[in-house]
Amino acid sequence: MPSSDSAPGLRVGFILARRFTLSAFANFIDVLRLAADEGDRSRPIRCSWSVLSTSRDPVRSSCGIAVTPDERLGDPSRFDYVVVVGGLIDQAERLDPEQEAFLNRAARAGVALVGVCTGAFLLHRAGLMNGYRCCVSWFHHDDFLERFDGLVPVSDRIFVVDRDRLTCSGGASSAHLAALLVERHIGRAAARKSLHIMIIDEAMAADQPQPGLPLELTSRDPLVRRALLMVQQNLDDPPSVAEMAERLQVSRRKLERHFTEKLGMSPSDAFLRVRLSQVRLLLGRSDRTISQIAAETGFCDASHLIRIFRDKVGTTPEAWRQEQLPKAG
Length: 329
Fold this sequence. Notes:
Elements: E1 10-16, H1 22-35, E2 47-53, E3 59-60, E4 66-67, E5 71-72, E6 81-85, H2 97-108, E7 112-116, H3 119-125, H4 141-147, E8 159-162, E9 165-168, H5 173-185, H6 188-197, H7 222-232, H8 241-248, H9 252-263, H10 267-285, H11 290-296, H12 302-313, H13 317-324
Parallel strand pairs: 1-2, 1-6, 2-5, 6-7, 7-9
Antiparallel strand pairs: 3-4, 8-9
């Protein structure tokens, strides 16, 4: 452990957007906090962090809790990374001019920029993502396409590292991206310690899939999007096509027409793909039994899931799970 007079090995500044996502910010900063000191005493010895703003006025999060900035923007070169934490999509149009100017100075100084949640939107608005790949949540994939031309976001990974631009989908992925920075600058043991205290078993690599909709089901059609989201929110008891149409207050024929025109498949086929996507996620990330996974994803029992999975994927769930395990040696 270095002395308290030593310079921290990892220095991070945060810019919080209006109505930022508190969980994404908290997950990121807690990994730094726990890696910075012995135990969880929170002294900023090996890592340091500051919330930056143009004033000391509190910034209110999307849940209503406000955070008071620690210091004004100043010289960005005092940080290794500047993290922009986004939030509500209708509040994420852009930062104020002073904040954007600060980020541009940081980029010119070689400071790496990080976009968390809809922070990628804000970095792109500031002209700082041109030529870079970026990650956004599957939930905001179409929102990004509607706002920006020439940049297709990555929505099937939890985070993306492209040279000195790092972006993540928010939520728990913020902790995994922060752990990557800790591992880079402090060491793997510190990163693992942070995650373990936060009851996160292992650090996840960037290419781990987001637990969202399969990319082939992305659509800008509002009716299709609402239907798919409703299925995802009711995986353990998925509605039938007729029930879905009734909930959405449209005819079954209209719902089927929209899915055929926009996705080239029936609603029932699309709904099944959503559920099988969650099955694969659970098979790869948990030790749940096939019966437990079947119950969580709306199948009658393990036999039903095995039969459907084999028909659609070409193998059994357990065989698929074994194929995903890292090979020994």
